[in-house]
Amino acid sequence: MTDREELRRALSEWEEGPVAKTVARFPEREEQFETPSGIPVKRLYTPLDTWDLDYDRQLGFPGQYPFTRGVQPTMYRGRFFTMRQYSGFGTAVETNRRFRFLLEQGQTGLSVAFDLPTQIGYDSDHPMARGEVGKVGVAIDSLADMEVLFEGIPLDRVSTSMTINAPAAVLLAMYIAVAEKQGVPMAKLRGTVQNDILKEYVARGTYIFPPGPSMRLVTDIFEFCAENLPLWNTISISGYHIREAGSTAVQEVAFTLADGVAYVQAAVNAGLDVDRFASRLSFFFGSHSNFFEEIAKFRAARRLWARIMRERFGAKDDRSCRMRFHTQTAGCTLTAQQPDNNVVRVTLQALQAVLGGTQSLHTNSKDEALSLPTVTSVQVALRTQQIIAYETGVGDTVDPLAGSYFVETLTDEIERRAMEYIEKIDAMGGAVRAIENGFVQREIHESAYEHQRLVDEGRRVIVGVNRFVVEEEPTYDYLRIDTEVEAEQIRRLQRVREERDARAVDERLEELRQAALGSDNLVPFILDAVRAYATLGEICGVLREVFGEYRAPDFM
Amino acid sequence: MSSSKKIRVVIAKPGLDGHDRGAKVVARALRDAGMEVIYTGLRQTPEMIVETAIQEGAHVIGLSILSGAHNVLFPRVMELLREEGADDILVIGGGIIPEDDIPALKECGIAEIFGPGTPLSEIVEFIRENVKL
């Protein structure tokens, strides 16, 4: 049955015959089925849907342009995805202990969560830091804290991802300085700084400086790493937070890649050759509830990015077109109600990420709708990844869902719809403009509100929240952050300030100020200040004075 | 309560937490329910929030924190409201707040805590039933 017309005829006979008869007696659950992004889902997909699929152009082979089927030729047959649990709380001492526990449990990479004062460039004794020290991550004020954080962890043997954006250059500098003390040259360091400021303005909120100087810091890191840290991922362009803020899967791809375009353009404008830095760009996505839409999303994002890099930026090196990404299961799908159910959600979402070809993975813990995870629940989350990797066999062949009539159709549709958004953003003058005028924020908010409305009306089912609800006793097994942490951290900070060479610090900070007023790459100046034990708050304070601070307009 | 008087609500994000999806969705729902809503934006100190609420003549303050700083920042807002003699304002909270923190927060004057999974209509109803106009 290879003839297209013949198949078309057979399909309509099936629809008018058996299907019509069945539907007449047993109506379907919905009039129209669609994905959460609003893509219609048909009853059945057949070869007709993929008839015009051009294998070479749209899929190709793994490890080859346009990378739809994956970024490496052998994918998980060679090595599984990196199991990388985002972790950090309290002081460097406690987080160092958690890191060592995770590595002992078979985790293969580190991922540092910093507390909010660190992410926003305040020292722990700043008035704005009150109540926040050590809460959502580890408190880092100076190189002294960073030395403790990585004590006993050889930095030439582990890769480390740091969720740090506005002060990314400062934390990268501290990491380099710790490595120096361990005798590890920076050329050998492997890891990632998130360094994605644009999504902070729209979704995550830890911005400090206005877009202009922020983009300069981003490209300074690209340039510095191209010369000195060839194995380092200079940015993790993040859809995860855009999605958590309420966007759909299509919007996640569109806004993330539009941000990516803005970074590449900024670097090109700064005089960097695209093939010199593009292979070190990395990405970060969420994995949500709709199984096939999420898998198709990962595949579509890879293909779309490859095309943008080749067709728009003229990248010649295939590695510049290769989208490598980290995935985290979706925090916002965790429920405070019947928290054990979250283990099941996380399992499915992790499986989607693996079927979508992720390079590394964080699986959420079941208790994270209410607090940071306990050791036991983190262990279950890590075991979930290990079960998928070692027991299910899903990694034994590359991109196993390719060729599925449905998955390929969805992949095309997500790519098409995301591209429409990107063209709209281009027409506005690019991602920075679309953020400044509030377009991206409003689109995300509309989707978030629509989702909540559907949940409240019971039209989008959340098991245990709006269906299958039970009366529950609250559980009290949470990870608590000791209220002593803040005072202890402030004491540590004061000790550093007393023991360091104050004059050297002043000199390095003044040199940084002069550099910031000019156009030199700032990373070497920040590195020198860090080596002299200037604090994060002092370094960011100098930059705040020169660059000013961003105030977010209200786009409600 | 007189039907002509509009309920005025300040939705605020105290502290450094940048997660404002919940705050904005709640703000929108209250607006759709006919209330006047002022959203403060991110990084508000308790002092800034209380000042805004008094200036705007708010009947309700909604505080949202997902960073774990609620045990420090919520009581501070209540303390300042009492100092300003504005403790007739109905204060409610939401975010990632462990169950066993709730009794102490209510003790200091927060009227209700709405955790993850709360239907928007429940918040609207609670405000209508408890607000002092």
Q: Describe it for me?
A:
The complex is a heterodimer of chains A (556) and B (133). Chain A has 556 residues and is α/β, with parallel strands linked by helices. Chain A folds into 2 domains: 4-50, no CATH class; 65-456, Alpha-Beta Barrel (TIM Barrel). Helices cover 50% and strands 6% of the residues of chain A. Chain A has helices at 4-25, 55-59, 92-104, 116-119, 143-149, 168-182, 198-204, 211-228, 240-244, 249-269, 274-277, 291-312, 341-355, 375-391, 405-428, 431-436, 439-456, 484-499, 502-517, 523-531, 536-547, and strands at residues 82-83, 86-87, 110-112, 159-162, 190-193, 232-233, 235-238, 281-287, 325-329, 360-362. A 5-stranded parallel beta sheet of chain A has the order 1-10-9-8-7. Chain A has a 5-stranded parallel beta sheet with strand order 2-3-4-5-6, with helices on one face. In chain A, strand 4, helix 6 (168-182) and strand 5 (190-193) form a beta-alpha-beta unit. The longest helix of chain A is centred in the last third of the chain and has 24 residues, at 405-428. Chain A is globular, with a radius of gyration of 24 Å. The mean pLDDT of chain A is 96. Chain B is α/β, with parallel strands linked by helices and 133 residues long. Chain B has one domain (10-118): Rossmann fold. Helices cover 40% and strands 18% of the residues of chain B. Chain B has 5 helices and 5 strands, in the order βαβαβαβαβα. In chain B, strands 2-1-3-4-5 form a 5-stranded parallel beta sheet, sandwiched between helices. In chain B, helix 2 crosses helix 3. Chain B is globular, with a radius of gyration of 13 Å. The model of chain B has no long low-confidence stretch (mean pLDDT 95). The interface between A and B is large, with 48 and 34 residues.
